[in-house]
Amino acid sequence: MHMRYHISFVVKGFCRKGGFSIFHEKSKFSMDLRDSGESLFARKGVLNKRDGDKLVDQALEEIFRDAEKLYEDALNELEGGRVRDAAEKAWGATVRATDALILARMGERPVRIDLTTRRLHELALKDPEVDEKLVGRYHTRQDFLHGICFYMGVCEPLDSIVRRIKETKDYINDARKLAKRI
Predict the structure, then answer these.
(1) Is the dihedral of CA 78, 64, 103, 27 positive or negative?
(2) Which residues contact 85 (CB under 8 A, 6 or more apart)?
(3) Beta partners for residue 141, in sequence order
(4) Closest CA to 151 of 160, 159, 141
(5) Rounded distance between C-alpha atoms, residue 182 and residue 180, angstroms
(6) How far apart are CA 145 and CA 104, in angstroms?
(7) Is residue 86 a part of any domain in this protein?
(8) Cα 103 from chain centroid?
(9) Is residue 10 part of a domain?
(10) H-run or E-run covering 155
(11) What is the domain count for the chain?
């Protein structure tokens, strides 16, 4: 499985059961790591398995924090009367929360929205709770908030748009709970 995310370095190809390679952005340092049950880099003294798990946990927390920040930005836009921008920020928060869930459960972070959508559906096939709690809400936000309100500029009925924006917090919370069910 592959994933890419930024903390202080990019982690590529991490798999909790396998190995991963790291590429440190500042020093252009790159290396393959293999996990054989012992310290992942014991011979070099750089990184062990526990550190790798911490990196994944940090990345997940960072992505969820970003989703929550986008949600707060959406509420601020809404308070300022900028419904169209609020809708797009709420959609962005939905995508970030979904990406974090996919990273937690599938070991990869999608780099394009089509991959996010595909991976969400793959995950929903394996876990009915993901299907029940997230898939419909994801597509409502993609279509209604992102497509119709933001791109087309048709943000009506307004009460429904505002409700969907505000309910994005529930989506983020549900994605976070499902991400913890590994």
Answers:
(1) positive
(2) 77, 150
(3) none
(4) 141
(5) 6
(6) 26
(7) yes
(8) 7
(9) no
(10) none
(11) 1
Q: Print pLDDT tens along the chain (182 aa).
A: 444 433 333 333 443 333 343 333 333 333 333 333 333 333 334 445 566 678 888 999 999 999 999 999 999 999 999 999 999 999 999 999 999 999 999 999 999 999 999 999 999 999 999 999 999 999 999 999 999 999 999 999 999 999 999 999 999 999 999 999 76
Check residue 51 and give its pLDDT: 66
Q: Residue 10: what are its φ and ψ, rounded to 5°?
A: -90, 130
Q: Edge-to-edge strands of the sheet including 20-24?
A: 10-12, 20-24, 29-33
Q: Is the previous residue joined to 157 through a cis bond, with omega within 30 degrees of 0?
A: yes
Structural domain including 121 reads 59-179
- Answer yes or no: is 68 within a domain: yes
User: For residue 78, what is the domain's CATH number?
Assistant: 1.20.120.330
> What are the tokens at 108?
């990869």
Backbone angles phi, psi at 67, to 5 degrees: -60, -45
Question: Is the pTM for the entire model greater than 0.85?
Answer: no
For the chain, the distance separating the N- and C-terminal CA atoms, rounded to the nearest angstrom, is: 15
**Does residue 94 lie within any of the structural domains?**
yes
